[in-house]
Automatic annotation (TrEMBL):
<keyword id="KW-0489">Methyltransferase</keyword>
<dbReference type="GO" id="GO:0008168">
    <property type="term" value="F:methyltransferase activity"/>
</dbReference>
<dbReference type="Pfam" id="PF13578">
    <property type="entry name" value="Methyltransf_24"/>
</dbReference>
<protein>
    <submittedName>
        <fullName>Class I SAM-dependent methyltransferase</fullName>
    </submittedName>
</protein>
<dbReference type="GO" id="GO:0032259">
    <property type="term" value="P:methylation"/>
</dbReference>
<keyword id="KW-0808">Transferase</keyword>
Amino acid sequence: MTFDETAVRALAQAPTRMDLWVDFVQQQSIRTVVEVGVYRGAFAQRMLDDCPGIERYYLVDPWRHLDDWNKPANRKDAAFERFHAETLERTAAHADRRVVLRGKTLEVVDRIPDASLDLAYVDGDHTLRGVTVDLVSLYPKIREGGFLAGDDFCRTIFQHDRTFEPTLVFPFAVYFAEAVGARIYALPHRQFLMQKVTGGEHAFVDLAGGYRARTLGDQLARRTEPATAPAPTLLSRIAGRARRPRG
């Protein structure tokens, strides 16, 4: 498949995340896809509804509570059972094209043949551990010239409050692209895209704007701390009394 960078730049005008990927799948004649992190199946439904050229669509999700996943989307098992059923219902019209792989990435990835995917779309565990596992284990499954893409490519690692693990899709995906010699694009709607090309040259192309803090040091330095008034000192109390208007 050919990769027209001008066309990728045109994708940056897409009004929504789903519109962006529908346009891309149609543009690149994508036939085999894996989506990691299906949740309730809305993205899978849209891809299958609007992209009849897709011949096989793998849906990878554990649909269960994970004790070692400290993110807001981690729900109780009962909720995930409902989400699984909802996904099956949403994609029922395409049962002949979908392949449901219920499990974490490392539990099911061997069921996908090596070098078979045109597109791997990652929207699962965005912790450092999770994005590392997903990108490293999925890359061999992508064919030469195929694509690796994903969601929640946030400009800051602090996507949620401090009670949750940071989101490390950015900058980890940039460093991963460097390791494999891939050109990686930051797209609007917090998306990223890279192509698997042997002997390629790494570059980071920011088509969305604002991806400046690529090191963890920069990210931590830019972290906005909650405003906390310092404890008053004796000198500040004296100065405060001196500024009060006399009655």
